[in-house]
Design a protein that fits this description.
alpha+beta; 4-stranded mixed beta sheet; 4 strands; 102 residues
Length: 102
């Protein structure tokens, strides 16, 4: 699976990019037909502590899944988004399996 990572309003270091790619790649266990993933890491210019926005979009045949999280750190955001996507991928796979059976 290809993972495209873009950082907006800052330059992401290689460690962060590697972390994101490793976490997102782990989603392949839950759905075998993932085409690719796009990850957007954004920093909002606000005084708010939770100014890091993590968006992950997963493309699977027939649909795309998207999660957006605002957190204090990108690692926290990636973890929360990946956990949510795991649930969505399982649900999507079950729906697909159910439609094949009926």
């Amino acid at each position: 699976m290809k993972v495209f990572t873009q950082s907006v309003n800052f330059n992401a270091d290689q460690k962060l990019i590697d972390y994101v790619e490793k976490k997102v790649a782990s989603l392949e266990k839950f759905h075998d037909k993932i085409v690719d993933a796009e990850v957007f890491l954004k920093v909002q210019n606000t005084s708010d502590k939770e100014n890091k926005i993590t968006e992950i979009k997963i493309n699977i045949p027939g649909s795309e899944l998207m999660v957006k999280r605002e957190t204090k750190t990108f690692e926290e955001g990636v973890n929360a988004a990946v956990d949510n996507l795991k649930r969505q991928l399982k649900r999507s796979k079950e729906k697909h399996r159910d439609s094949l059976i009926s």
